[in-house]
Amino acid sequence: MVRQADNMCPDCILYSPPDKSDPIEKSKVVVQFPSAERFKPSYVHSFGMSDNYFVFIETPVKINLLKFLSAWSIRGSNYMDCFESNELLGTLFHIARKDIGGGQGEYIDHKFRGAPINLFHHINTYEDQGFIVADVCTWKGFEFVYNYLWLANLRTNWEEVKKAAMMAPQPEVRRYVIPLDIHREEQGKNLICLPYTTATAMMRCDGTIWLEPEVLFSGPRQAFEFPQINYKKHGGKNYSYAYALGLNHFIPDRIIKLNVKTKETWVWQEPDSYPSEPLFVQTPDAVDEDDGVLLTIVVSPGAQKSGYMLILNAKDMSEMARAEVDCPMPVTFHGMYKP
After folding, report:
1. H-helix or E-strand spanning residue 158
2. pLDDT one-digit tens code per residue, 303-331
3. Which residue, 273, 276, 264, 246, is CA-closest to 315?
């Protein structure tokens, strides 16, 4: 398993062997990324991985390690008090080769930059004709979106929740394209020549390459989060469909299917129903990318309603079945399907 190290090495990619005896102890660092601020690594929830490359996105949302080390024992503060936002930093895009031999990766020292964003989830990352295509769920701006998710805020009435969401960063699904073949003399020229995207990469006079994304999905205070694709067939490869939990002013109230090529969307939604992250399960021996089902746990508050497992047809988002559970259920986040 390849994963990000959160505490041992904040800007590292670790490889953990499939060994249940002591996977943490047997983990090893595959590649380490430089941080723009040594004692303030970025908050990183996920990273991108294609067939041959890692994509590590360093956002302006920072964890102050000095505050973190003294938070509880000295200052009596909590984890959220350790976050800072550097509005001048913008976003840095780091890439590394996955394996140059002996299980070791190699950092590629090109300086890719973009406007400031918040980022939690990568949708998919793949290579195409000398470019890395990275599709991500973003929140525009440098201010940490978690600042608007305090429980006290979410417990207020719906109008107050909407007011908070109006002030928070705007969510967008973005496609960034990173060129692998860099010619330093091509200043001011768009280095991207893929015919199916409007994303750009421009060489600047200081040697940095400025990335402008293509927006794949955007709606007023409508987020596309906790994404899934047909990872079995298209993880790290060119693809067409993504599925996600739709957040309406931070409230999860729909499941969305997105065609990343045409930007067409399909939605499942019911009144007073709050689904979880959808899990895509491919039909055995499927031919089409979206031939399968989506599994989601739906919470329906109220004495007369039961929570239920919902099964949707991944092609048209129609309901195929539901299994009700006659007991209280919490809202869930991440999960996995295990046959």
Report:
1. helix 158-167
2. 667 789 999 999 999 999 999 888 777 77
3. 264
Are 228 and 172 found together in one domain?
no
Same structural domain for residues 299 and 255? yes
Q: Are residues 164 and 278 in the same domain?
A: no
Q: Are residues 121 and 172 in the same domain?
A: yes
Range of the domain at 140: 1-218
- The Cα 310–Cα 77 span in angstroms is 40
Numbered residues of the known binding site:
45, 121, 334
Residue 158 CB partners (closer than 8 Å, separation 6+) = none
Q: What is the pLDDT of residues 90-139, one digit of tens each?
A: 999 999 998 877 778 888 888 999 999 999 999 999 999 999 999 999 99
Q: Which of 187, 218, 249 is the last residue of a domain?
A: 218
Half-sphere exposure of 153 (CA within 13 A, CB side): 17
User: Are 269 and 194 members of one domain?
Assistant: no
Contacts (Cβ under 8 Å, ≥6 apart) of 29:
5, 9, 12, 13, 14
Q: So what's the pLDDT on residue 75?
A: 67
Instruction: Give the pLDDT confidence score for residue 9 in this predicted structure.
Output: 46
Judge if 250 and 173 occupy the same domain: no
Count of structural domains within the chain: 2
| Mode of pairing for the β-strands spanning 214-217 and 106-114 | unpaired
Q: Which amino acid is at 270?
A: E
Q: pLDDT tens digits, residue range 237-283?
A: 999 999 999 988 778 899 999 999 999 999 999 988 899 999 999 99
The distance of Cα 222 from the centroid of its chain, to the nearest Å, equals 15
The annotation places the binding site for Fe cation at: 45, 121, 334
CA 150 to chain centre: 21
